[in-house]
Amino acid sequence: MTTTNNPQAEPAVAREGWSPAASAELYRIDEWGMGFFSVGENGHLMVNLDGNPDHMIDLHEVVLGLEERGISVPVNIGFPDLLAARMREMASAFSTAIAENGYRGSYTAVYPIKVNQHRSLVRKIEVYGREHGFGLEVGSKPELLAVMGLTVDHPDRLIICNGFKEERYLNHIMLATKLGRHVVAVVESLAELELLLDAARAYSVRPRVGVRLKLDALASGRWQGSTGEKAKFGLSIPGVLDVVGLLRQAGMLDCLELLHCHMGSQLSDIQVINSGLQELTRVYADLNKMGANLSYLDVGGGIGVDYDGSQTNWDFSANYGLEEYAATVVYRIMAVCDEAGVAHPTIVTEAGRAMVCHHSVLVSNVLGVSRLDRHALTDEQATAELAQGKHPRIVRDVLEALLSVRPDHLLESYHDALQARQEALTRFSVGLISLEQRGLVDRVFWSTCIRISALARDLDPIPEELLELEQKLSDTYFCNLSVFQSLPDSWAIDQVFPIMPIHRLDEEPVRRATLADITCDSDGKIDRFIQHEDVATVLPLHQVRDGEPYYIAVFLVGAYQETLGDLHNLFGDTNLVHIRYDDDEGWYVDEVVDGDTIGEVLGYLQYDVRELSGAIRRDCESSVRAKRLTAAESRTLLAAYDAGLTGYTYLESS
Fold first, then answer.
1. How far apart are CA 417 and CA 435, in angstroms?
2. Burial class (CB in 10 A: 0-12, 13-18, 19+), 214
3. Mind listing the pLDDT tens digit for each residue in 604-639?
4. What is the pLDDT of residues 561-592, one digit of tens each?
5. For position 4, what pLDDT does the model report?
6. Which of 181, 195, 517, 597 is 20 to 30 A away from residue 445, measured at CA?
């Protein structure tokens, strides 16, 4: 790794006149930022909390302020005001659609806490959701118990219980109902319904029951397999009819209040949503005609997030916005219900990703840079090497390939360089050229590639082989984070997130890079970046200056990332900070959730830190007796070990 500036190796020079607006365009902030993010005149990334230009927060200033407070990067910075804004937008979009269409039902949302179960976030959603009548959705016993505790003062909030349920889960639902909670238990199978009816009789409760329909309509995109006849959850039409029969037989058909479905996750195409709504609402209408007491129609989650800003039906985008989504849902449900002559239901959405992803930003510092062009040769250096006349033919061939690069035969030059290098590697493996000559071959080869790649930018079209050169020649920026802990979707499902520096945006970023984390794993990297309806393999970044911190942020990470992360290399949760704005004081720290200490992470995996510390203490004493350590050295070592157990799992600045 190096952060050394080598002027001879610089493939591009920052152009004069580069502006913050140019950076905003380069990183597509206006497309994916939804007005929440922008570039300030000082070249720093700004966060706009509520549309008021006087309430802008300088993200770089926040990071420096946190470090002054002893809160180290990597850090997950949450902006609760952005969360509140997204909830207002969802409520407003449906309120407008209901008014414009003359819809005679209402709308509510429930937040699926699986999307991000951090107490600080769920608590804020519970508080902010009160004015809109939003509730919560759970998918397990632990989630239900957490939500029961959070809603003590507001028992009327809608709580939808999904997921597989055994006797104890159902008992918790019955107890919550007796405590006055507005709980709907969504049935996933007939066996589950039988257990629910047994629990209801045991607790003398008339439960609120929902049923999840397995739609025939297939979603599109990466989660297409989670829908259709092979979907994991839900009942087919015959299964739903069996539920109706069992409830009628038990005298509880009036308890069936909610029909639910899963259309898919990150739905990118509005037509898929339209098709699913038609099928779902038709079933809803017919069930009501059969005597069910349905009043809620839960269309599930899946509101797409436009990660790349292209507004298309690409996997990482969506060809619709909140307003169009709401209008489509309201109109389609109303049209089917009116045709069937049934009352308009309360519409429920479970769109957690769209609700929370914008509020959270992951910030990391760059620890170092690996550059292939560090040892690049100039023409003068290559000519001097040839003039010495001491190199074998194959080394001279590589040098001549570099000096012969011309714009009109770049592909030929590249093939010649590839062939010469391969022959040189073969000769080195059998001892025909020295290690120093092998090193010179590598330097010359990559110098040739750098020149070819620079000249290829003027070609139209650029040959595919030369297009791949940019990624091969890219720098590697080593970032103080764990992809597996903080960005697991990037590793597991190739999710693409907006990534960019948070300062120096008034300078042109002349380097092209991929990112690597600090885990000891070759998969701990990011080499997929947003690009209009496509994936870029490199990210434009600035050259890191010696002794000067360089900060990179990953945006739209509020959904799933922290809660899905694992402890690869025992890197734990990052520090989590919530930032608010005050008219008099500016930005301030509203809440801090400290990241995991080393001792806490070890404890998760059943290491006893007291036992570990005791073992080191005994080892130190043995070393003192054997005169390998002095008593003072032993004391210093023990203090360092114990301090390490309470330290941050990520790299800390000295």
1. 19
2. buried
3. 888 899 999 999 999 999 999 999 999 999 999 999
4. 888 888 788 888 999 999 999 888 899 999 99
5. 33
6. 517
Angle (CA) 469-474-475 rounded to 5° is: 160
User: pLDDT of 56-69, one tens digit each?
Assistant: 999 999 999 999 99
Check residue 654 and give its pLDDT: 62
Give the pLDDT confidence score for residue 231 in this predicted structure: 56
Same domain, 293 and 414: no
Give me the helix-helix angle, 393-403 and 410-429, nearest 10°. 160
Q: Would you say residue 509 lies in a domain?
A: no
Please check whether residues 96 and 146 belong to one and the same domain.
yes
Are 143 and 246 in a shared domain?
A: yes
CA angle 369, 370, 373 (to 5 degrees): 120
The total of structural domains in the chain comes to 3
Taking the C-alpha atoms of residue 633 and residue 559, their distance in angstroms, rounded to an integer, is 47
Give the model confidence (pLDDT) of 258-314 as tens digits.
999 999 889 999 999 999 999 999 999 999 999 999 999 999 999 999 999 999 988
Tell me the HSE value of 230 on the side-chain side, using a 13 A CA sphere.
5
Burial class (CB in 10 A: 0-12, 13-18, 19+), 556: buried
**Which residue in this structure is represented by tokens 């209408």?**
285
Q: Which stretches does DSSP call E strand in 459-560?
A: 475-479, 499-501, 511-516, 525-526, 529-531, 534-536, 539-541, 551-554
345 and 387, same domain (yes or no): no
Q: What is the pLDDT of residue 163?
A: 92
Arithmetic mean of pLDDT, 17-34: 95
Write down the pTM of the prediction: 0.90
Which residues are CB-contacts of 315 (< 8 A; sequence separation ≥ 6)? Answer: 221, 222, 266, 268
275 in the same domain as 230: yes
Domain interval for residue 387: 372-470
Other C-beta atoms lying within 10 Å of the C-beta of residue 78: 27
DSSP label at residue 595: P
